[in-house]
Design brief:
The complex is a heterotrimer of chains A (420), B (305) and C (469). With 420 residues, chain A is an alpha/beta fold. Chain A has 23 helices and eight strands. Chain A is globular and about 70 Å long. Chain C is an alpha+beta fold. Chain C has four domains: 84 residues, Uridine Diphospho-n-acetylenolpyruvylglucosamine Reductase, domain 2, CATH 3.30.43.10; 118 residues, Uridine Diphospho-n-acetylenolpyruvylglucosamine Reductase, domain 3 (2-Layer Sandwich); 190 residues, Vanillyl-alcohol Oxidase, Chain A, domain 3 (3-Layer(aba) Sandwich), CATH 3.40.462.10; 38 residues. The two termini of chain C are 31 Å apart. Classes of the chains: A alpha/beta (420), B alpha+beta (305), C alpha+beta (469). Chains in contact: A-C, B-C. The site of flavin-adenine dinucleotide (FAD) has 37 residues of chain C, from strand 3, helix 5, strand 10 and helix 12.
């Protein structure tokens, strides 16, 4: 049979294998069915109808994909793996049920009120010592508790605080930037969101809110529920248009990657296609914005922390942003220690750590070993999933290092400078 | 003991086929400059003199490749290539009166081997006649080739016990713009170690051989010494020279003609290693495939039949 | 039942038998050859490999060793027999920095070995463009080359020893000949045996010290002919670059459109990437010669890589060029011919003529210093007419290279793809001799049967087994 597979992008693959060693699941499982090249073959065959959508083993290999898109930055032929995977998951969703855990989480994230309650509950729990005590339990419970424990910040800081006026340049000429709250970021990393606002302001942006925004929909797309994601996308586009901001700052790499793909997500929706494309062009990772203006640097102090940087896949591979976070970190005055294999996925991958806990931990373990070898006190990474997954791994292994967002570190550095 | 002289491949193939049919043992020799190399070949074997299968078949200087018949002497290769500023850096222990074929068949090394490659590294292709009289070609004349299983490596160094080499293609090198020889007295205080470090480093010499006692005297050195050959472009050799002087302040320029004598002096020790060298089942199966009646240089490896 | 027996050795997860899961193992990196294996088995230890091969031997089942499946000759494909995947054997067993050697399991990826050697200032010199993916086992089996093999030699010249498992269960230690040891160079014979002699269980290789200095030059030409003449001129002058690579305009465009864009000028007819390395002293002289000869042959620009990052970028473009060509059309054929280096210019002209006459998109990206051509043609296999023209063009190119005294493969191996040309290159007596060499290792033809030598040329095999040609 020579009929062309109706899976756009798959025809670009020349089967060269350059993506194999970039793929965390191939490195962990050593079967090409769990590699990009293998999954492309499977997806092509699914699309061509040569293998059945219901084949549970094919489903398994596709489910085991982290969606980290490290294969894309390794591929010389420009195979759009992420888009192909999403298209396949969308088809598959109709024949293969999404796992129960995942379904539950997705429904919660679609409903701001329910999400608010869940996040509130999580924070209450976090305020007790319980998560630390339960973190060492095996399986999902232990993992979730460790994640929660890792999100705690001294001082909390949920309220949107007023900026110290002396540091804020005069308004008027400034670029107006709206920030994405992000479900997990606002729910569990509110202090990081506040830090983001302060740091942007100090670096000359006029920060504004975009009320009405919701979940970005990334988890839904990854789970094959593209319709839910499209609905969320429309809500968000409208909300940010309303805010009147020129740019949208995102401090969650996963959400940022999703927002940048709204154009692709809504490409078949005539009414929204253009708005979505325009919107996507205005989305920037917060480190990207800061790097563009050259972030105001703090003079390194003697007790500057030793920091190592782990690149979130959705920043490095999906958004192709490699340097910007490093520039932000350099501005903090910290001592930067390179992390071997920083470009490799930590195994978090959205819901993956909940759905495929054991594989996810296998992918994480070399990462933890590399981190320990650097002797760093802080691992910087700009994505809530990675912060929690690596953070949980650090908590559970009793390591002394903590995971922090680069912008949090810059904010700390500015604060330390003010007090000294 | 009879001797048959052969002048071309066809005749050779016919002769070997006849010997194969009769089971006649053959002692293969080319220029005969190294008779002791064949001392363990079963006595009574018919001597097959291949020195007349000779001549350069193709030499394209721009390609830095050369094809010549087995009986061509090393001196002839030297002369032909020197005219174009090139060389075939086999330069084996022994003399240039020896043949190209025997050098490759015995994979004889020389002072330049470490820097410029052993016979197996220089060989690109071969033609040979195996123990059944079949004329076989392997490899080719171009510098990179993986077409088919590697008969070239198999035959180079097989000491004429699998087949008789009749033609070999090799890669050549450009002669270094500067090529000078130094002698370094081995007068204690770690000079040997420092020379070893030099050989491992970026200014590695083309050759570095140590001569002690009688060997040193035979080469014409007044005391134990290393002969060191530095080669490359002017800039490289200048730096290598100072590296050598750092290794030994007593290093002194030496007449390069010394290498001729040095190669002769060093020639003997190779032979002890032959006995029993091909005694594993796999070796014997290889032998059986190419010389099923054990007529080629029988006894040379003292293999159990 | 064989499947159960293998599962008992390696575990259920490491035996594949479902058609869907075998799909990706139907071909190597040459998608034109698809063969459906019966099973694929992935042993995780040396002992498991030995047990698996013993089980296969008892069952009378032939097998095909497979590394990373990046081969370009249809070598690691199994027609209704077993794929023996070695990718799980990926331990660096020993690295002796003082002796400059490493012993690795066959599934160790080429670039991973170099990474392991880097802290000691060493690297593994053979650098196939696929080095970030291909395995040492596959490299040994194909006698892989790479850009830097011009100066440093191919896999053969860097393999010191190997432990080889023959299909009948015999385990043999092979060693490259040394000054103090005579004997048949079966190590040399094994390198390049394309999986037909047995399975490499471990391989000991030489590591090479990193050069003191590296200079990378990008020379730009407005005609392919000029570039080819520059290569011949430099080689004839006796300068030995560590690498000397050529890319033509269609290739440059594909690379520049990819994630590995290297900054090659889009309007150049060809670029040459020349690298000189070694001791710092003396390099400048060679650089001057290359630059002078390039300009004399018509180079419009010669620039030196500014720093390590720039050099890496220039190289990434070259090394990922083949993959980048994938974006031109859905399918791609690549050949691997070698020609005498003095003949490069006329041969490239004739190849261009063939491409034009048959109306196919011939692209060239190759190891120019060795005369090792890689003509590539991107095309659409679903277009029957185009496919026919592509195959006709490739055939003409190969015949041309043979007629010029060249070879049909410099580094990719014969595999399934080039078998048809073998009797253009060698007479039956020679092909039969190659079969005999194989018979010494694997008389039953259990390892990678049906590859490299068309069986009609194997006299013994034909007469005893009555196998069809
Ligand atoms: C983009 C691209 C660029 C390339 N560039 C180059 C290049 O520059 N130079 C070059 O030489 N090649 C190149 N190749 C070809 C290929 O990468 C090499 O041939 C490589 O050596 C194959 O290694 P592998 O592990 O993928 O082997 P595979 O493709 O898996 O197998 C190749 C052969 O090796 C055998 N084999 C594998 N492992 C073993 C083992 N342990 N024991 C015995 N036999 C074994 C197999 O049976 C098969 O016959 C390139 C390929 C691609 C896709
Ligand atoms: S690197 Fe790209 S072209 Fe190569 S196999 Fe992977 S996806 Fe296909
Ligand atoms: S997205 Fe990540 S896990 Fe999935 S195939 Fe690509 S590299 Fe592998």
């Amino acid at each position: 049979m020579t009929a062309r597979a109706p899976l756009p992008g798959s025809e670009l693959c020349v089967h060269c294998g350059f993506c194999l060693q970039a793929c965390p699941t191939y490195l962990a499982l050593d079967d090409e069915n769990d590699s990009p090249r293998g999954r492309i073959v499977l997806m092509k065959a699914l699309a061509a109808g040569t293998i059945a959508d219901t084949d549970p083993f094919v489903g398994l290999h596709l489910d085991q994909c982290l969606g980290c898109r490290a294969c894309e930055t390794a591929c010389p032929a420009g195979v759009p793996y992420g888009q192909m995977l999403e298209a396949t998951r969308e088809r598959q969703a109709s024949v293969r049920p999404t796992p129960l855990v995942a379904r539950l989480v997705l429904r919660v994230f679609e409903r701001p009120v329910v999400l608010g309650i869940v996040m509130f509950g999580a924070r209450v729990l976090r305020a007790t010592r319980l998560p630390w005590l339960l973190a060492k339990l095996p399986g999902r419970i232990g993992a979730s508790m460790a994640m929660l424990a890792s999100t705690r910040r001294p001082g909390g800081g949920r309220a949107r605080v007023a900026l110290p006026s002396s540091t804020v340049p005069a308004a008027g000429t400034l670029t107006k930037v709206a920030t994405l709250d992000g479900c997990v970021m606002e729910g569990l990393f509110a202090s990081t969101n506040r830090a983001t606002e302060r740091v942007l302001a100090i670096n000359g942006f006029a920060v504004t809110a975009a009320p009405g925004q919701q979940c970005c929909g990334a988890l839904h797309v990854h789970a094959g529920d593209a319709d839910a994601a499209r609905a969320l996308a429309r809500v968000n586009i409208a909300a940010f248009e309303q805010s009147g901001a020129a740019l949208i700052a995102v401090n969650s790499a996963g959400c940022g990657a999703m927002l940048k793909e709204y154009g692709h997500l809504l490409k078949d929706d005539a009414a929204w296609r253009e708005r979505a494309t325009l919107f996507s062009k205005r989305v920037k990772d917060v480190t990207e914005l800061l790097a563009d203006v050259g972030p105001r640097a703090v003079t390194p102090s003697a007790d500057a922390p030793r920091v190592t940087y782990d690149a979130p896949c959705h920043l490095l591979h999906a958004q192709r942003i490699a340097d910007a976070p490093l520039r932000v970190l350099r501005a903090t005055g910290a001592t930067l220690i390179p992390l071997p294999d920083a470009e490799q996925c930590c195994g978090s991958a959205g819901l993956y750590s909940l759905v495929e806990p054991s594989l996810s931990l296998r992918v994480l373990s070399p990462k933890l070993a590399h981190i320990a070898n650097t002797g760093a006190q802080v691992v910087a990474t700009g994505n809530p999933g990675c912060l929690m997954h690596i953070g949980a791994g650090l908590v559970r292994s009793g390591a002394h290092a903590v995971a922090r967002h680069p912008v949090e570190l810059l904010d700390d550095a500015y604060a330390a400078e003010r007090t000294s | 003991m009879t001797t048959t002289s052969i002048t071309n491949v066809r005749d050779l193939a016919d002769t070997v086929r006849a010997a194969f049919e009769d089971g006649t043992p053959l002692r293969i020799t080319t220029c005969g400059t190294w008779p002791e190399s064949l001392r363990s070949v079963r006595s009574g074997a018919t001597t097959l003199d291949c020195s007349a299968i000779t001549g350069i078949v193709e030499y394209i200087p721009g390609d830095l490749t050369l094809t010549a018949r087995a009986g061509t002497t090393l001196a002839e290769l030297e002369e032909a290539t020197a005219r174009h500023g090139q060389w075939c850096p086999l330069s084996p222990w022994g003399t240039d009166a020896g043949s190209f074929g025997a050098t490759m068949a015995t994979a004889t090394r020389g002072p330049l081997t470490t820097a410029l490659g052993a016979p197996r590294d220089l060989a690109l292709g071969i033609e040979c006649v195996d123990g059944t009289g079949a004329v076989i070609r392997g490899g080719g004349r171009v510098v990179k080739n993986v077409a088919g299983f590697d008969l070239t490596r198999l035959m180079v160094g097989s000491w004429g016990t699998l087949a008789i080499l009749t033609e070999i293609s090799v890669r050549l090198r450009a002669r270094p713009a500067v090529d000078e020889t130094w002698s370094v007295p081995l007068d204690g205080d770690g000079v040997t170690e420092r020379l070893h470090v030099l050989r491992q480093g970026v200014y590695a010499p083309l050759a570095c051989e140590m001569f002690h006692g009688a060997a040193a005297r035979a080469v014409g050195l007044s005391a134990d010494a290393a002969l060191v050959r530095l080669g490359g472009n002017a800039g490289f050799v200048a730096a290598a020279r100072s590296a050598l002087r750092t290794a030994s302040t007593n290093a002194a320029p030496h007449d390069p003609a010394v290498w001729t004598r040095a190669r002769e002096v060093h020639a003997a020790p190779v032979l002890q290693t032959l006995a029993g060298a091909i005694d594993r089942p796999l070796d014997r199966r290889v032998k059986a495939q190419f010389d099923p009646r054990h007529i080629l240089n029988p006894g040379l490896f003292a293999e159990s039949a | 039942m064989l499947q159960r027996e293998l599962e008992a050795i390696v575990g259920e997860r490491n035996v594949l038998w479902r058609a869907s899961e075998l799909l990706v193992y139907e071909n190597d990196a040459l998608p034109g050859y698809r063969r459906r294996p019966r099973l694929a088995v992935f042993p995780g230890t040396r002992d498991e490999v030995i047990a698996v091969v013993a089980a296969l031997w008892r069952a009378g089942m032939p097998f095909v060793p497979r590394g990373a499946g990046t081969g370009l000759s249809g070598g690691a494909v199994a027609d209704d027999i077993v794929v023996l995947g070695l990718q799980r054997l990926k331990q660096v067993l020993a690295l002796n920095a003082g002796a400059r050697t490493a012993t690795v399991e066959p599934g160790v990826v080429n670039a991973t070995l170099t990474k392991a050697a880097t802290p000691f200032g060493l690297h593994y010199a053979p650098d196939p463009s696929s080095q970030t993916a291909c395995t040492i086992g596959g490299n040994v089996a194909e006698n892989a080359g790479g850009p830097h093999c011009l100066k440093y030699g191919v896999t053969l010249n860097h393999v010191l020893a190997a432990t080889v498992l023959l299909p009948n269960g015999e385990i043999i230690a092979l060693e490259a000949p040394r000054a103090d040891r005579a004997g048949y160079d079966l190590m040399g014979a094994f390198v390049g045996s394309e999986g037909c002699f047995g399975v490499a269980l471990d391989v000991t290789v030489r590591l090479t010290p990193n050069p003191e200095q590296v200079v990378t030059l990008l020379s730009v030409f407005s005609s392919l002919d000029d570039a080819a003449r520059a290569v011949s001129a430099v080689i004839a002058e006796g300068v030995l670059p560590s690498a000397f690579e050529m890319m033509d305009n269609p290739t440059i465009r594909a690379v520049e459109a990819s994630i590995y864009a290297a900054g090659y000028p889009l309007d150049a007819a060809a670029v040459l990437l020349t690298e000189l390395d070694g001791a710092a002293a003396g390099i400048a002289e060679d650089v001057q010669i290359v630059e002078r000869l390039s300009r004399a042959c018509g180079a419009t620009d010669v620039r030196t890589a500014t720093d390590a990052a720039d050099r890496a970028r220039l190289w990434q473009g070259r090394k990922k060029a083949f993959g980048a060509l994938g974006r031109i059309a859905p399918d791609l054929v690549v050949q691997d011919a070698v020609v005498p280096r003095t003949r490069l210019a006329p041969i490239l002209a004739k190849i261009a003529e063939i491409g034009q006459r048959l109306n196919v998109r011939l692209c060239n990206v190759f190891h120019a210093g060795d005369g090792n051509l890689h003509p590539c043609i991107p095309y659409d296999a679903s277009d029957a007419d185009e496919s026919a023209r592509v195959h006709a063009a490739m055939k003409e190119v190969m015949e041309l290279c043979i007629a010029e005294g060249g070879s049909i493969t410099g580094e990719h191996g014969v595999g399934s793809d080039k078998m048809a040309y073998m009797d253009r290159l060698f007479a039956t007596e020679s092909l039969d001799a190659m079969c005999r060499l194989r018979d010494a290792f694997d008389a039953e033809r259990r390892a990678n049967p049906g590859k490299v030598i068309p069986s009609r040329h194997c006299r013994e095999w034909m007469s005893v087994r009555g196998v069809e040609a």
